[in-house]
Structure of Alpha-amylase:
Amino acid sequence: MKLFLLLSALGLCWAQYAPHTQQGRTSIVHLFEWRWADIAAECERYLGPKGFGGVQVSPANENVVINNPYRPWWERYQPVSYKLCTRSGNEAEFKNMVTRCNNVGVRIYVDAVINHMCGSGNPAGTSSTCGSYYNPNNRDFPAVPYSGLDFNDNKCNGEISNYNDASQVRNCRLSGLLDLALEKDYVRTKIADYLNHLIDIGVAGFRLDAAKHMWPGDIKAVLNKLHNLNTSWFSAGSRPFIFQEVIDLGGEAIKSSEYFGNGRVTEFKYGAKLGTVIRKWNGEKMSYLKNWGEGWGFVPSDRALVFVDNHDNQRGHGAGGASILTFWDARMYKMAVGFMLAHPYGFTRIMSSYRWDRNFQNGKDVNDWIGPPNNNGATKAVTINADSTCGNGWVCEHRWRQIRNMAAFRNVVDGQPFSNWWDNGSNQVAFGRGNRGFIVFNNDDRSLSTTLQTGLPAGTYCDVISGDKVNGNCTGIKIQVGGDGKASFSISNSAEDPFIAIHAESKL
Ligand code: QV4
Ligand code: CA
């Protein structure tokens, strides 16, 4: 009995780092700004069948409706209440999505905006996604309710101006967003009630927005109030998966390690550095990726949530800078996402975006505010074309063959060690994952032609980047692995996708 108690206690104490994805599913997709009905359909027709582990959805709570600029994507980061009604759908549609996704083994993680309410500059009124009244001027949010007593004005009556002052970063207003007093049990309870409502519906965990702007102890106090996950889909005693948005590129007062006790943290150095390496800026080379992960100063792998780009830095918000690769840089982007999904470091999140009409002036996209494809403000449905791509302005990176197949690669090699690293001292590299997978990149300005130890059993393998294994044949490149585990690879530097990936399930 004692052993059981110890094991269950251990299970409890590290569970908030575990995403609770079904066995064999190792990545989540951020379906940014998608409608709940479209996410439900995508779970059943694509994410479930293709082995994706879950979906990060946009904030589910009521937010301000901003008309100037017209319905910016970021209005959803200005809460008005914790009612489940947004541009993505209402409570019934949210419940339907969670049930249908869970039923096909795809988890739902909600982007929880709990550091603040709306911007101080908004006019009072009912311009909100559920029609609730709010008055930022006197901190009145009757639909929660919150009053002036529930905000940090008495600690700091201004905006964050000095990121070297930890108290400012937590107690002042981020971009004018009214800062909640999370040391108050009343506020902690209102937030916990909202998150518990979502947990009881069946969500598996949360992205904690602007976690850097909350005291770690206050977050812990909220998390301690949370229910265990819904036993309709999760084992008894499962704790919500927590990943905290903490931008720590170094050089500031706040360190992401302060938040390890609450759950995982977003590792923003990952995408910034990988983009620099793949772009070959500042003398960076892929051969330097041999010690990728903690060797590059990142947080421990079991505390990291990693991504190539996110909804902020793909449009110049937040952190990462010019090196961030996005779907706009498709060829390099596929290499970066492929590398991320093949490498064992961190828990991986794939970005899925919409196109917008970028307009660079003096190096800045003045259209960075543009919201999702819409008809007079109503978000457009996600349409699926005959070739399985998406229409209506949705990019669906997660449906790109190279990315979809690398998500499957990660599932196949799960638990296998990083092995058989090779590089040419420049930008031609390769590595394996035990005896289950192997990947080769050519990012040099000359062709690659070499024989490598793959660690794989002898056989004929389909390259999952240039094609698929269909009806016992390869629609793309075939790779022969000999009895000694060696295989010859040739990759032109002008190839559509200058990388090759093979794994145990792409073997004929
Ligand atoms: C403006 C002025 C303020 C003024 C205020 C008055 O700039 O000086 O006090 O009006 O109301 C939007 C506008 C911003 C405006 C603000 C309203 O862009 O100009 O302030 O609304 O207060 C997103 C966008 C922001 C947007 C915000 C709220 O990125 O541009 O602000 O939503 O709509 C840091 C943080 C990190 C954060 C990142 C962007 O450490 O946590 O900045 N990332 C998360 C989310 C991000 C979101 C927020 C946090 C806020 O990923 O999407 O910001 O919830 O690095
Ligand atoms: Ca705060």
Notes: The chain is about 20% helix and 20% strand.
